[in-house]
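for the writeup, i need someone to sanity check this before i put it in the appendix. the sequnce is what the collaborator sent (i think, or maybe the updated version? ugh). structure was predicted straight from it, no edits. if anything looks off just tell me and ill rerun, i have time this weekend
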Amino acid sequence: GLSQYSSDPRTEWDLSAYSTREQVLEAVKNLRYKGGNTFTGLALTHVLEQNLKPDAGARLEAEKLVILLTDGKSQDDANLAAQTLKNLGIEIFAIGVKNADEAELRQVASEPLELTVYNVLDFPLLSSLVGKLTRVLCTRIKERSHKESAGSTVKDTPVNTGPQLSPTDLKISAVTSKSMHLAWSPPLKPPKKYRVVYYPSKGGTPKEVVLEGAVSSLQLSNLTSHTEYLVSVIPVYDAAVGDGLRGVTSTLPLSSPRSLRVSELSHNSLRLSWKAAQGATHYLVLCSAAPDGAED
């Protein structure tokens, strides 16, 4: 399976999309590069929520590996998202190109880092990693599968088990120009934590709040006015992640001054008056000569 990301991750194809090597190689050939920002934390969350689910082709008995390929430093908290995956028994390999941050790659990747972290100076050099990475991946899968059959504990796939693990009924209320209130109905089995991720739909830095599992509401503040926000509420358990709740809502525009009046005109002065804008602390008044032909 493959997902590509910038500020908004997108699934290019699921685990169940292709069944032969030739089909995968053809899909790679037809892949179109997605430019933009580097929100790695959001991308890892997308993989967990969208790509590692049974309905996307994830098999319960299969080892779960994520290979992250990035050419820059993440603009959000990649480490927190990566830790969630690793806590669920998902192994992460991190490959950096060009401007990737080596320290961040080492934070995100699973142990042992000498097998899971790679960094090259440019894209053509990625070909030099293929042989080694293939051998390492296959060996790790065999090792982990052997441990599982020998009775060692390997955590199950994070699967959605419906209402038992997933909250419902997200309500967004008390929306102002700078804030909104979220509330939801908890699942039958309270989670260990909730991850609440929110960001502007037209691109912007995703922000994240982590709540204790007993909490089922949150006030978001310091938002940008007149902006559409995407909100996700994701329940996290010791060995699973429930389906996230999603919502979209727009903050209100800032109120405007109204009823502008001009009075007390003289040859070099005039007086302006208006109805106040709610919440305004200052006003900026701009005045310029009207262009020829426009109304004075």
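The helical segments are 21-29, 40-51, 78-87, 102-108, 113-116, 130-149. The chain has a mean pLDDT of 86.
thx in advance!!
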